[in-house]
Amino acid sequence: MLEISKLVKRYGHDKPVLQELDLVVEGSSVVSIVGASGAGKSTMLRCINRLVEPTSGSIRLNGNELVKLRGAALRRARRKIGMVFQGFNLIDRLTVMENVLAGRLGYVSLYQAISRRYPKEDIERAFTLMERVGIAHYANKRADELSGGERQRVGVVRALMQEPEILLADEPTASLDPRTSEQIMKLLQSLASELSLPVLINIHNVAQAKTYTERIVGLRHGKMIFDGAPSDFTKDALDAIYGGIEAPEEELTAEPDKAQSGVPHDQT
Fold first, then answer.
1. What is the pLDDT of residue 251?
2. CA–CA separation, 39 and 33 (whole Å)
3. InterPro entries annotated for this entry (predicted)?
4. What CATH code would you report for 2-242?
């Protein structure tokens, strides 16, 4: 369970980017965070894994207070927080398998990491997960030879190799075409259920948030404006979050192409 209480993030003397946010995410729920650019969505995710230092407040993951951790304790806690990035964050010159096994760096010795001598069980788990998301046949292919959707699947598997207690996804579909982005959202939805893993997704595409997540949290100027089921996300909620100026109309109303969304592979 993730428990965020009165989270504040301020840069210098400027107005806080996050203003006393409260949020609880538990079970295998898939929660989307929506809001205009600058609303604080990415900052909130990065406060959770401490890529950004909170100014004040509490962040607990399964009872472990993350805000106060330092050094080795913080590194151990980060192992349990998987992160999927918009820009994939892969090492292009390495193979898919090598990128996936990077998810185990927090668990192996420095010698094992440098020499790439990972335990047999790590390699077996990597193959199992890659097969699950449809990229096992690319194990020995360089990361820069893959399509955007394939690269994002590598990023998802790398995060899962950490054996995380929560998965954070920061705009995981923003760099993808519409068909592929729906495949990735469907994949995250399925993995949350299969692995009993809570997933927190920062996303601009409101239509996809309503289709593939079971709860929507709306932020505006660092404050929570909406927290509820997609069925309750009305035009009034949309206007309150975006102020009537954000997101193309098709992103807010278009239905995802469900006939395409379940396809595990893409060649885009």
1. 44
2. 10
3. AAA+_ATPase, ABC_transporter-like_ATP-bd, ABC_transporter-like_CS, ABC_transpr_PhnC, MetN_ABC_transporter-like, P-loop_NTPase
4. 3.40.50.300
